[in-house]
Amino acid sequence: MHTFVAFDRITVDPDICFGKPCIADIRISVASVLAHLSGGMTVDEYLKDFYWITKDDVLQAMAFASNTVEFRIVPFKKAS
């Protein structure tokens, strides 16, 4: 069962970061956060390097991405 999640730390504004989802008031895109983490950086390392971002910001960026993928169908071409 899925529940609606309010993402109060994520904003989408066409005038900020080309309309990409960003952490509110910081202008760091959700994609940027995920790129660092998927590249091997731990959350603690990320928070140390980007000290102006909170752990709640990072967790909400990950939850937003998860929620976005959960409700989108991505077509795959079957490997031969």
How would you portray this structure in words?
The chain has one domain (10-70): Winged helix-like DNA-binding domain superfamily/Winged helix DNA-binding domain (Arc Repressor Mutant, subunit A). The chain is built from 3 helices and 3 strands, in the order βββααα. The protein has helices spanning 30-38, 43-49, 55-70, and strands at residues 10-11, 22-23, 28-29. It has a 3-stranded antiparallel sheet. Strand 2 and strand 3 form a beta hairpin.
Can you tell me the residue ranges where pLDDT is under 50 for at least 5 consecutive residues?
none
- What is the global morphology? globular
Main sheet attributes: strand count, strand direction, barrel closure: 3 strands, antiparallel
- Helix-strand pattern, N to C? EEEHHH
Number of domains: 1
Count of β-strands? 3
CATH class: Mainly Alpha
* Arrangement of strands in the largest sheet: 1-2-3
CA gyration radius, whole angstroms: 14 Å
Number of helices: 3
Structural class, please?
mainly alpha
CATH architecture: Orthogonal Bundle
Mean pLDDT: 88
Q: What amount of the residues lies in strands?
A: 5-15%
